[in-house]
């Protein structure tokens, strides 16, 4: 998917909502546990209920790998279902991968070719040659971790490297990499005040913002500091939407929560 | 597996060789491609041929994920085969994972509980709460990226953070995390001169050293600067061993290459 198509979707739906499909079987409504593939059935119901209000879905691979081969099958079925039924929706494999060049190329193959995701999240620690194999896929998006929403972000990401924080160094350095126009960045919403600084370095790139909702960020603050002319934001909510209810009404309730967020976003969409 | 068992194995086999099972189907002998699971058949043959000279096996997950569900099945069969037939051998899921706390816990579950690896490699960028869920498994080992063997290591890892390189800050900080005694560290062999400095910070921990062989590090230099009283080293070779031949003699040739490395290590084992 091209970035322009994503921007069009955002304007059409008046939403930059991304729904995180982080499915934990201990939190799934019990009536689904009898089905052959409860994770996929859960995702399908959530997708059917929320797709009018969301422009992106983001399964976090950890939640699938935890269930082994069966989990990986659920992931493959989920992405195939989205691509078949909602080809306009942007898909993110939240995998936080990164390795030496030839190995990163295998990860890129896994998520871009085999599973057919539009994008994948990547960790920056190993530098340029660990990220460029992802960027080499010109019709795909590579989403680099910059400033994450967890407490541990302060261990290294905000440490000063030559008079600037490491995450700023990551942003600046990544702009010099080949096909850097295919980058987006992960920026935690719990640190909305940082968005202003970040926008000075990457005014035009999209930011994927986790941490609204369960992780505690303010939507309005993120919009105030993060929006650009293309909107340039994907704001993720996982638990607040997908676990809105654990009864048979879970899909309906997820729709209501997604709609609430869409309605808060509507006034901001450009 | 306890670290003491690993140390015993090293002394018994006079080897600290780790064999990297990074299986690329384009490099596998063509006669295996007719079998139902060429990746597993390849791994089984390599394991059968090299286990007398190796104390650890390290599949890199990228090479399995690239083949989707089938690849993940091959990974599951490979680790099950090792655990069943060679329970004394230390196993490493080279996965370079890391995410916010509850998500890292799912990754830990995937590799420690579901697949039953002894250890997993983890990226440090997201800090303490992204690593501690792995460390919480007290009978398992968490192998933290410190200084990697690729060119991109100089982008961030060797940048100065408050008068010391980032990778040193990572080492020092990680020692303050709960259950830090369960840590090992990835240190690239292409930078043997750094090992002396690293040993000042982590004198007692094991180091997993990739980059001997195809990536160009010197085995003797690594031993000179990296060994400690427990030996404290796992030196990995992947391509040099597993692709020693692409004919029907591939397993025999892999055995010869593994033996050569073991013989070079023998004089260093303490």
UniProtKB/TrEMBL annotation, chains A, B:
Pathway: Pyrimidine metabolism; UMP biosynthesis via de novo pathway; UMP from orotate: step 2/2
Catalytic activity, reaction form: orotidine 5'-phosphate + H(+) = UMP + CO2
Any one Pfam family match given in the protein's UniProt record, by short name: OMPdecase
GO molecular function: orotidine-5'-phosphate decarboxylase activity
Listed GO biological process terms: 'de novo' pyrimidine nucleobase biosynthetic process; 'de novo' UMP biosynthetic process
EC number: 4.1.1.23
Start and end residues of each Orotidine 5'-phosphate decarboxylase domain: 16-254
InterPro entries documented for this protein: Aldolase_TIM (IPR013785), OMPdecase_type-2 (IPR011995), OMPdeCOase_dom (IPR001754), RibuloseP-bd_barrel (IPR011060)
Superkingdom in the source lineage: Bacteria
Swiss-Prot/TrEMBL keywords: Decarboxylase, Lyase, Pyrimidine biosynthesis
PANTHER family, per the entry: OROTIDINE 5'-PHOSPHATE DECARBOXYLASE (PTHR43375)
Entry similarity comment: Belongs to the OMP decarboxylase family. Type 2 subfamily.
Name used for this protein in its record: Orotidine-5'-phosphate decarboxylase
Organism: Capnocytophaga cynodegmi
Gene name of the record: pyrF
């Amino acid at each position: 998917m091209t970035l322009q198509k994503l921007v069009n979707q955002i304007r059409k739906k008046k939403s930059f909502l991304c729904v995180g499909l982080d499915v934990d079987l201990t939190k799934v409504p019990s009536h689904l546990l009898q089905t052959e593939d409860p994770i996929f059935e859960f995702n399908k119901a959530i997708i059917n209920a929320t797709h009018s209000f969301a422009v992106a879905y983001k399964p976090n691979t950890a939640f699938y790998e935890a269930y082994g081969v069966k989990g990986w099958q659920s992931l493959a079925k989920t992405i195939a279902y989205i691509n078949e039924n909602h080809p306009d929706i942007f898909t993110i494999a939240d995998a936080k991968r990164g390795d030496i060049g030839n190995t990163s190329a295998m990860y890129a193959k896994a998520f871009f070719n085999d599973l057919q995701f539009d994008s994948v999240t990547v960790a920056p620690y190993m530098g340029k040659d660990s990220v460029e194999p992802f960027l080499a896929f010109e019709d795909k998006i590579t989403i680099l971790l910059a400033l994450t929403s967890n407490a541990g972000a302060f261990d290294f990401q905000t440490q000063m490297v030559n008079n600037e924080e490491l995450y700023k160094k990551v942003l600046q350095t990544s702009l010099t990499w080949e096909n850097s126009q295919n980058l987006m960045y992960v920026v935690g919403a719990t640190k909305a005040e940082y968005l202003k600084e970040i926008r000075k370095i990457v005014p035009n790139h999209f930011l994927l913002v986790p941490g609204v909702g369960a992780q505690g960020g303010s939507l309005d603050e993120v919009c105030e500091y993060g929006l650009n002319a293309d909107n340039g934001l994907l704001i993720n909510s996982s638990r607040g939407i997908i676990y809105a209810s654990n009864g048979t009404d879970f899909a309906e309730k997820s729709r209501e929560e997604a709609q609430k967020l869409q309605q808060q976003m509507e006034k901001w969409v450009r």
